[in-house]
Amino acid sequence: MTLWTAPNILTFIRILATIPMFIITYDEKYYLIAFFVYILVSLTDLLDGYIARKYNLVSDFGKFMDQIADKILINALFIAFLEMHKVSGWFVAIIIVRDIFISGLRMFLANKNVVVAADKWGKLKTFSQTILIASLYLTPLFSFLDTVNLVLVILTTFFSLFSGYNYLVKNLVYLKGE
């Protein structure tokens, strides 16, 4: 199977979009534009998976890179929001440490020919992160979102920690042979 399939191209677009998204996030006057661009970029995550499954273009490379693309975009934006004091350092630390841990686990297991695909908890984590980022972009327009953001931070923290724990427990059988 070729590397340059439609799903993989969409994944690379998501990675490349991180740079302009990161830059425009630093100026609240561009938040509405950033919000719409973020929604479009986030939709590539849904679209690449849909196309891959529908046209039998699912690959181990695509499964792995799709998750990396999510982490690159989301973590970069959370770092930007952290620098702008829109989210707390403890929250961003949890997100990044969990992501690095799970990525390390995936790489380790890949050496054992085990591919760790996203499960429902990982997808809930990514969904809650996506909603939180969208809400952070809209907060300057709708102040009531400050309260919503607090709830989303708590939910995202829970989903991040629980999904990380879940990935570890589900794959302990492969780790015990070490």
Automatic annotation (TrEMBL):
InterPro entries: CDP-alcohol_PTase-I (IPR050324), CDP-OH_P_trans (IPR000462), CDP-OH_PTrfase_TM_dom (IPR043130), CDP_ALCOHOL_P_TRANSF_CS (IPR048254), Phosphatidylglycerol_P_synth (IPR004570). One of its GO terms (molecular function) is CDP-diacylglycerol-glycerol-3-phosphate 3-phosphatidyltransferase activity. It comes from Marinitoga aeolica. The chain crosses the membrane at residues 6-24, 31-52, 72-97, 151-169. The lineage of its organism: Bacteria, Thermotogati, Thermotogota, Thermotogae, Petrotogales. It is a multi-pass membrane protein. This is CDP-diacylglycerol--glycerol-3-phosphate 3-phosphatidyltransferase. Gene3D superfamilies: 1.20.120.1760. The keyword Transmembrane helix applies. Keywords: Lipid biosynthesis, Lipid metabolism, Membrane, Phospholipid biosynthesis, Phospholipid metabolism, Transferase, Transmembrane, Transmembrane helix. It comes from the Bacteria. Belongs to the CDP-alcohol phosphatidyltransferase class-I family. Its EC number is 2.7.8.5. It is found in: Membrane. Coiled coil: none annotated. Its main location: membrane. The keyword Cell membrane does not apply.
